[in-house]
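Bench notes, afternoon.
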Amino acid sequence: MSDTGDQLEHVTVDAGGTEVDVAAHVAGEGPPLVCVHGIGLDAAQVGWRDAHAALADDRTVYAVDLPNHGASEATSAVRTTEDYVEVFDAVVDALDLDSPAVAGLSMGGAIALGHALDGGDPERLVLVDSYGLGGDAPWRTAAGLAVRMPFADGVLAQSLSTRAGVRSTISQLVGNGVPEALVDDVLASVDSTSLRAMRRWQRHEFRHDGLRTDYRDQLGDLSVPTLLIHGEHDPLLPLSWSLDAHDRIPDSDLLRLPGVGHWPPRERTERVFEAIDAFVSA
């Protein structure tokens, strides 16, 4: 699979009283499907790079760059999960999309969930190694301390300024081997702006007693058909989160991917998009 000739569409939305320009990579024809990437080391052309080639035959695919990422505007007005959910809601409205299917990866999954649980009306929901499905993780205490250390932003940016540094970081997140195309895309898309945004979000999200965003108690109220996809070797967000969510969400399917880490659309591309295509077409 490879990129198709997608178009870049820009909308201006309100973010806490500040106007923000948000970009969406658009291709295809048919009912809308909106793809949302994770925070920091991600962007539309990283996590969802192959979405257009795989899905645009039957769908109009919108791969959105969140504020501070990719082709979207940088702003300190968008800091928290709630901020990103509000921006996403506004983007869906600005694009005049009526009940689109929504697919979210990592923190993008929490945005998709927040959208669905807070008055959005998605046709279908796809959650890939989704954040927001658990209250804590083993790494949270150390990560919470690290993001509050002086000069942490600069150290992280420096470590990701070289190909070797990016490859080393990605190797800790994926399952079997680092896709070189993924290294290329992270190098092209991730910069100090997106890393600062990730740090701001982490400082708000990583509390002393757990993770701030936890939708578990609301999942039983989720009425939209939902597909959960999870890499069994994800070192960040454990498979148990999606297993539990599958039990809680009334209308849900679960795809487990052995040997896959935190980036299923890039690690097991064909299998992931086959599953998404079948699900949104059902």
